[in-house]
Amino acid sequence: MRYELIIYWSKPDQAFIVEVPELPGCMADGATYEEAIDHAQQVISEWIETAKSIGRPIPEPRGKLAYA
User: pTM score, two decimals?
Assistant: First the structure.
């Protein structure tokens, strides 16, 4: 997957949280950094499958903007 992931530690949840800003509402978590990324990859796939099934547009991964 080429979507941007924002990963941070949530002290209240005692878990790593992953947000996928290009896919509205797409988030995952995990007890470890690696687990959170694995869960995010699964949730991204499910988000795309659901979007296809209901005819919702799927944003193209845009990546980070580079400034000169």
Answer: 0.86
